[in-house]
Amino acid sequence: MANLILILGDQLSPTISSLADCDKSSDSIFMCEVSEEARYVKHHRKKIAFLFSAMRHFAKELEDEGYRVVYRKFEDSENKGSIEAEIRRQMADGNYEKLLVTHPGEYRVLENLSKLKSDYGISLDILEDDRFFCSTDEFSRWVKGRKQLRMEYFYRDMRRRFSILTEGGAPIGGSWNYDSENRKFPDDDVKTPQTAKFDTDKITEDVLKLVADKFPDHFGEIEPFDFAVTRADALKALNDFVRCRLETFGDYQDAMREGDPWMFHAHISFYLNCGLLNPRECVAAAVDAYERGEAPINAVEGFIRQIIGWREFIRGIYWMMMPGYEALNFFDSKRALPDFYWSGDTMMNCIKDCIHSTKNYAYAHHIQRLMVLGNFALLTGINPKEVSDWFLSVYADAYEWVELPNVIGMALFADGGKLASKPYASGGNYINKMSNYCKSCHYKVSKKSGEGACPFNYLYWDFLARNRTKLEGNPRIGMLYKTYDRMSEEKKAAIAKSSADFLKELD
Ligand SMILES: Cc1cc2nc3c(=O)[nH]c(=O)nc-3n(C[C@H](O)[C@H](O)[C@H](O)COP(=O)(O)OP(=O)(O)OC[C@H]3O[C@@H](n4cnc5c(N)ncnc54)[C@H](O)[C@@H]3O)c2cc1C
Ligand code: SF4
Questions:
Q1: Listed residue (260, 313, 464) closest to 375, CA to CA
Q2: Is-contact 198 228, C-beta < 8 A?
Q3: Which one of the ligands is nearest to 373 CA?
Q4: Cα of 269 from ligand 1 centre, angstroms
Q5: DSSP-derived secondary structure letter, 327
Q6: Among 73, 206, 326, 445, which is disulfide-ready with 428 (CB 3.0 to 4.6 Å)?
Q7: What would the pLDDT profile of 262-308 be if each residue is shown by its tens digit?
Q8: Which atom of ligand 2 is nearest to the CA of 437?
Q9: Domains of the chain by range and CATH?
Q10: Nearest-atom index, ligand 2, CA of 457
Q11: CA of 442, closest atom in ligand 2
Q12: Whether residue 256 has its Cβ less than 6 Å from ligand 2
């Protein structure tokens, strides 16, 4: 008997496990664009357009290859608005033995699909998502017996396990980590190469109109729209990165320049996370470039660390901690998310620029997300749920499995240190060192408190003082309290006053 194979919006990979045993003559592929997924947070309009267009292109490619595809468009009058309702209808309409799906990326979707079995008696097979290097079971085994989970050790094990840039188990180049070489700021004459841009076709044009029409109240600019929406174009984007930016990826990995959203990053997370690219081919492309002598070790190691280290570690943490990870709030932070996270209407130049990028491109690079937007939310004590809903909404690469640990664990330390060994908190000095934002800011980065001082400066010390009982024992941060204690009472009072005034204004 025939099977129904469900392909979710982040499973647009021709080699996805659910397709492996598909019988083209009898099985049907099922894909649907549903309101529940598009609206459960108010996703950026570019993100919705990207995913709908990529899904429609993927469905067409499957049809061209002889698969029977049932595709429910968002605008179909019969569309029931949720994946589960659509599957129930399809299962009732057809004569299917079972529903097959590759393990969904998000806990919420897994729960909903599981209900099809428990509540409606639908026979359901959930297959491993083998697009990741490390399965959730393997990650659980790695975790067992460890007191602390640190990405660095996970990453080294992954390098050894898959023999990536290793020789006889040792790292090529002699070091596992070149982070210390990767903190440069580009001179003015270092121009950022253009990121790959792609023309729209009829499918994308239709989707852009649909999104403009149906999601007028969602955040973000729809146009210009130049994302790749097919695997062939996503591969071109990957090649473009390897050819034009990988060489300097490491050097400028942490740098931020005003009006320069893309810098030397890869800009492939949207393609990786929806399945148009496979992480293995990204790693292989970078290693090949190293072996051809086209990119130095600090760049290639830095890139590989992100893919086989951070990306896999983050996913492992997500499945280990769910459900419940989304509700953690170590600092008991309660403040509402300021409106300028949506409007960009603030005099803090760093935040303004990062929001501008987010709004226009549904993208901001890692240091902008972590050390500007995340850091500000951490220092000012914004409620983690509001912060993570915002991050989930605004980036084209955001899916809960990757967004949540990055926000709860890395940016906000709301898990109390499951993922990171210390909070990524910093004052204005760090931002000034790694960017040119402060040069044209209303605030003075050199001023520590009082009128016109950079808010990050006093908020940093205020955050440490407020959370002393929770942080003083942290071996990586405890010594900062010695510096704080050495400050004069007058200086401490000025920090407290500037912070109280700023936070009052924020509320
Ligand atoms: C608060 C916060 C929220 C984030 N939310 C997301 C998210 O929703 N989706 C997402 O894919 N990434 C997220 N990240 C991680 C990272 O910022 C993005 O992966 C990266 O900016 C994507 O741009 P890029 O492709 O140019 O990446 P590059 O900097 O060029 O890195 C290459 C690739 O490495 C992977 N990678 C790098 N860092 C991470 C990381 N910390 N976690 C997982 N993968 C990583 C990505 O797949 C990325 O494409 C978040 C980081 C922070 C601090
Ligand atoms: S001075 Fe402070 S607020 Fe202004 S850009 Fe620099 S770090 Fe940001």
A1: 464
A2: yes
A3: 1
A4: 6
A5: G
A6: 445
A7: 999 999 999 999 999 999 999 999 999 999 999 999 999 999 999 99
A8: 5
A9: 2-127 (3.40.50.620), 136-193+245-321 (1.25.40.80), 340-506 (1.10.579.10)
A10: 2
A11: 4
A12: no
